[in-house]
Write a structure and sequence with these properties.
- The protein is an alpha+beta fold.
- Helix content is 29%, strand content 19%.
- The termini are far apart.
- The chain has 5 helices and 9 strands, in the order αββαβαββαββαββ.
- The relative contact order is 0.08.
């Protein structure tokens, strides 16, 4: 089927060669190759000379943001969330989706106190009901910060 073949070709064209997913903040090199901004910045930082990772051509100019047309095409691609597997999310809306995705991994709000748990956003309340750090709060005594239990520990 010609339509299917053409769609596959377009999908390959609009996906980053290193990340193997639709471009995130596409940037062009002076030799006209396109990369995700973070990928090209890392590649340039890792090389001693400013060279294109695809053709190894040295360049003196700056990498520049890809054209508005290209960015709009990439942002309209439909992608799937790797966390909740919701499909048909526009690539340009993925960041918004991830801010509310129920399966997105988030650290416990007590991670700075030492809780190392990383839980799905939808499971935060369930985790906090069991988190031993949830029972502690800061109390100032004699110019020292100590932790005190706010509720009695289960017996």
């Amino acid at each position: 089927n010609t339509c299917t073949t053409t769609a596959r070709r377009w999908r390959r064209t609009l996906c980053a060669r290193y990340a193997l997913m639709p471009f995130v903040e596409p940037y062009d090199t002076p030799c006209k190759h396109t990369f995700c901004k973070s990928c090209i910045v890392q590649a340039i930082a890792a090389s001693k000379k400013r060279t294109c990772p695809l053709d190894n051509k040295e360049f003196a100019g700056e990498v520049t943001e890809a054209s508005v047309v290209f960015r709009n095409i990439v942002n309209d691609l439909l992608v799937e969330c790797v966390h909740c597997h919701e499909r048909a999310i526009k690539r340009g809306s993925l960041a918004d989706h991830l801010r509310t995705c129920p399966r997105f991994p988030v650290p416990c709000r007590h991670h700075q106190r030492g809780c190392g748990a990383v839980i799905h956003r939808a499971s935060v309340d369930e985790h906090l009901n069991q988190c031993s750090y949830e029972e502690l709060r800061h109390v100032r005594r004699d110019n020292l910060t100590v932790f005190a239990r706010t509720r009695s520990a289960p017996s």
